[in-house]
């Protein structure tokens, strides 16, 4: 079963629109970590945020905000007043303890965000 | 500049040939990782190394091999046994090789391999 589901394959918006990228995860662990990464056209993934399973506080960083809800196993990402530079593929990832105790992230399939001027 | 360097950026190979992708880092990070990215598939873990001279198979290790003789370097060889090697390959590092490290990964810019 897929552990991280990003149901939106591609989202297209016009500049200044708000957009929410969905992420639903699946785990049996009580301790786990969730991440969002951004992959611009250059290719390298850039870390955006990490949350642990014990901290459900929502977070805001400039135009970015994250809504973590354990009750629905979701960790959604909202960009307010989108800009063309936000165009990228966004990945949600889940880290839970693998065999041997290593926390190595499992990635979702990514959501491609296209922001039109 | 501190960072992760992957080379080559683009590589073409004929079927049946082995090819080695380079990943070098000067971040002094202990752990290094190789992921494969296919369109619509996300990133899948091939191999990882938490310390020099040690590495572990990831979720899709078949047809790949690695070595970790130096802290700075973690080359990936795509062998002829890999049935569908055309993909985008990403190398990543993490500060600590401790299994309990839950920190973020740092990524290189990737290598795109095309098998003709």
In short:
The complex is a heterodimer of chains A (117) and B (116). Chain A has 117 residues and is mainly beta. Chain A contains no helices and twelve strands.
Properties at a glance:
heterodimer, A: 117 residues, mainly beta, six-stranded mixed β-sheet, globular, B: 116 residues, four-stranded antiparallel β-sheet, 11 strands
Tally of helical runs of chain B: 0
Tally of strands of chain A: 12
Distance linking N and C termini of chain B: 35 Å
Q: Helix coverage percent of residues of chain A?
A: under 10%
Structural class determined from secondary elements of chain B: mainly beta
What's the helix count of chain A? 0
**H/E element string of chain B?**
EEEEEEEEEEE
C-alpha-based Rg of chain B, rounded: 13 Å
Quaternary state reads heterodimer
Kindly report the greatest chain-chain contact and the residue count on each side.
Answer: A-B, 27 and 28 residues
Uncertain runs of chain B are none
Average pLDDT across residues of chain A? Answer: 93
Structural class of chain A: mainly beta
* Main sheet attributes: strand count, strand direction, barrel closure of chain B: 7 strands, mixed
Portion in strands of chain A: over 45%
Radius of gyration of chain A: 14 Å
Could you give the count of β-strands of chain B? 11
Give an overview of the whole structure.
The complex is a heterodimer of chains A (117) and B (116). Chain A is 0% helix and 49% strand. Chain A has 117 residues and is mainly β. In chain A, the strands form three sheets. In chain A, strands 2, 5, 6, 10, 11 and 12 form a six-stranded mixed beta sheet that branches. In chain A, a hairpin with a 6-residue loop joins β5 and β6. With 116 residues, chain B is mostly beta strands. Helices cover 0% and strands 50% of the residues of chain B. Chain B contains no helices and eleven strands. In chain B, the strands form two sheets. In chain B, strands 2, 4, 5, 6, 9, 10 and 11 form a seven-stranded mixed beta sheet that branches. The mean pLDDT of chain B is 93. Chains A and B meet through β5, β6 and β11 of A and β5, β9 and β10 of B.
């Amino acid at each position: 079963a897929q552990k991280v589901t990003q149901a939106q394959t591609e989202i297209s918006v016009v500049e200044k629109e708000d957009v929410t990228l969905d992420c639903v995860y699946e785990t049996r662990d009580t301790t786990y970590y969730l991440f969002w990464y951004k992959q611009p056209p250059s290719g390298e993934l850039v870390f955006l945020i990490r949350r642990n399973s014990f901290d459900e506080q929502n977070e805001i960083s400039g135009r970015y905000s994250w809504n973590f809800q354990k009750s629905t196993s979701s960790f959604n990402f909202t960009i307010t007043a989108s800009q063309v530079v936000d165009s990228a593929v966004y990945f949600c990832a889940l880290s839970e303890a693998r065999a041997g105790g290593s926390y190595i992230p499992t990635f979702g399939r990514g959501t491609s965000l296209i922001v039109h001027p | 500049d501190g960072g992760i360097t992957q080379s080559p950026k683009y590589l073409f190979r004929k079927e049946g040939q082995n090819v080695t992708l380079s990943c070098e880092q000067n971040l002094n990070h202990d752990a290094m990782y190789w992921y494969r990215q296919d369109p619509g598939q996300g990133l899948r873990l091939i191999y990882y190394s938490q310390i020099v001279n040690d590495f572990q198979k990831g979720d899709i290790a078949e047809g790949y091999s690695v070595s970790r003789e130096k802290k700075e370097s973690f080359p990936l060889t795509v062998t002829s046994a890999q049935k569908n090697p055309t993909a985008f390959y990403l190398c990543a590092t993490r500060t600590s090789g401790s299994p309990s490290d839950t920190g973020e990964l740092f990524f290189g810019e990737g290598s795109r391999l095309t098998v003709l």
